[in-house]
Amino acid sequence: MSAETTVPDAGSTTTGAVTVRFYAGAAEAAGAEERQLPLSEGQGLDEFLSRLPELIAAPSLERVCSRSSFLVNGVRTKRETGALSPGDQLDVLPPFAGG
Known about the structure:
Blueprint: E1 4-5, E2 14-22, H1 25-30, E3 34-40, H2 45-55, H3 61-66, E4 69-72, E5 75-77, E6 89-93
Parallel strand pairs: 1-3, 2-6
Antiparallel strand pairs: 2-3, 4-5, 4-6
């Protein structure tokens, strides 16, 4: 699948974009494996993820993200304390089945 870009709402202040890569069930819920998404000024990981389902019109992504792990630039990051900067790469890793 190709990467898609979403434009921010008029009136929001963006500082750049984040590349979000979705894996397994997250890719299915998002309808894409990768998206370029706008990052609002001062937005942390938790706030960004809270807006994500609405931003890409994928309501089922909220449930997937509530159970997922996240990597920012290849480093595991907690949703509650993670920071994002323009140009970052965010990986959304849902729980994988199997052993």
